[in-house]
Amino acid sequence: MMYSSNLAKEHKNSLNLEESSTLPQIRGVIFDMDGVITDTIEYHYQTWQQLADEEGIPFNREANEELRGLSRRDSLIKMLGDREIFEEKIQELLDRKNRYYLEFIQTMNSDQLLPGVENLLNELRAANIKTGIASASQNVHRVVDRLGIRDRIDVITNVYNVNRPKPAPDVFVYAAEELGLLPRECLVIEDAESGIEAALAAGMWVVGLGPGDRVGQAHIVLPNLEGVHWSDLLLAIQSLR
Ligand code: G6P
Ligand code: MG
What we know:
alpha/beta, 11 helices, binds 6-O-phosphono-alpha-D-glucopyranose, binds magnesium ion, EC 5.4.2.6, HAD-like_SPP, HAD-SF_hydro_IA, HAD-like_sf
């Protein structure tokens, strides 16, 4: 169930391929983590909800959707809306939220890998394609270790390695540099609107996971990675020519 949008084709032209007959050479796949590799979105929701309840801030699942892909700090600022609070209090809230979240992480293991992820990682290794994770999460190393996939990931970066968080392209550009690849040699797999925007701005190929109203700007849109093979993704990108 893959499709490419016109916008995707326009974007492809902007990738400046030397010859229109040249097939894209994808040498690396950069994954977002939360919502792509593992469903920590639910843990983030529950811990934000707990914090919001304690502080009397209105919050629900719908509001949580707006936080997908944002850094912890940007998420809190969005939750607070017009409320003005001191930096010290902001820091205390961020630390408290993370304490709750770390408790969830302790319970994670490879069962929390989303369907299709492990198989895809194995296929990428077999095909000699480099792999990276570029996440907005400061906990990315911890989560990757709990999931037991560290041996199949070449580079792990988060937005704290760079100046600007997603939707700025920085974290993807940085990951590509660390992999020793050009942006157009990288395929990003993302579930958040801010992440899709970031990857497109970086000049990379993008697979969006989720509903079209959230990830429709991506070159390829899929519900998730279940049953998705590397050969399928490669063919889909090459058919965008
Ligand atoms: C991901 C999630 C966000 C989360 C952010 C920060 O991008 O999609 O919902 O707020 O990471 O995670 P952290 O582990 O640093 O609190
Ligand atoms: Mg995500």
